Amino acid sequence: MRLFSKYTWRFNAQKKEIFLTFDDGPTPEVTQFVLAELQKYKAKATFFCIGKNIQNHPDIFKNIITNGHAIGNHTQNHLKGWKNKTATYVENVLECEKTIEQFKKPEYSKLKTQNLKLFRPPYGKIKKAQAKELIKRGYKIIMWSVLSADFDTTISNEKCLENALKNTKSGNIIVFHDSVKAAERMQYALPKVLKHFSDKGFVFKSI
């Protein structure tokens, strides 16, 4: 089985659609900023949440849901797949799944239920055995086609924006982070990305 080809890197969009994703939240103030910007453009996104951050900030997590965005699993403790045994890694993903299920109620009962189990490996690092086990458990592994690199403290705000604008086409999955570390670059780039592509007739959709 060619696992690499089983990961989702982009979508074959027939329309002008872009898929924004945000990793590492929910984070006080930062996630709220993202939600407010998305709201301005009626944009939907997918948030790959860390379980412990959901537990620490349940109200922000529920805001993501009630704003109609999709939720993905980013492990309970932001584990790097390459540095952890498969059993440990999968257990951590399942712990995050329990956290998501625990805190998304009763908000989801009022909305259309999300059927897909989405997973993104922290750092994009995952062993074949780990991926195989998660796929067997019904997870869809979502990677990306455009990396804003907002997490990189050595790049400028302008470079982060350029990374997103220059490389994005229909069907692309863009990665931003709603984390403290990425906040400055993300908060500079995201509003400009939303405006630029909205002006060109693109729609931002959740996965």
How would you explain this protein's 3D organization?
Helix content is 42%, strand content 15%. Strands 1, 2, 3, 6, 7 and 8 form a 6-stranded parallel beta sheet that branches. Strands 4-5 form a two-stranded parallel sheet. It contains 8 helices and 8 strands; from the N terminus they run H-E-H-E-H-H-E-H-E-H-E-E-H-E-H-E. The radius of gyration is 16 Å and the shape is globular. By secondary structure, the protein is of the alpha/beta class. It has helices at residues 3-6, 30-40, 51-56, 58-66, 86-104, 128-136, 157-167, 183-199; strands at residues 17-23, 45-49, 70-73, 117-119, 139-141, 146-147, 173-177, 203-204. The longest helix has 19 residues, at 86-104. Helix 6 links the parallel strand 4 (117-119) and strand 5. Residues 16-205 form the NodB homology domain. Keywords: Hydrolase, Metal-binding.
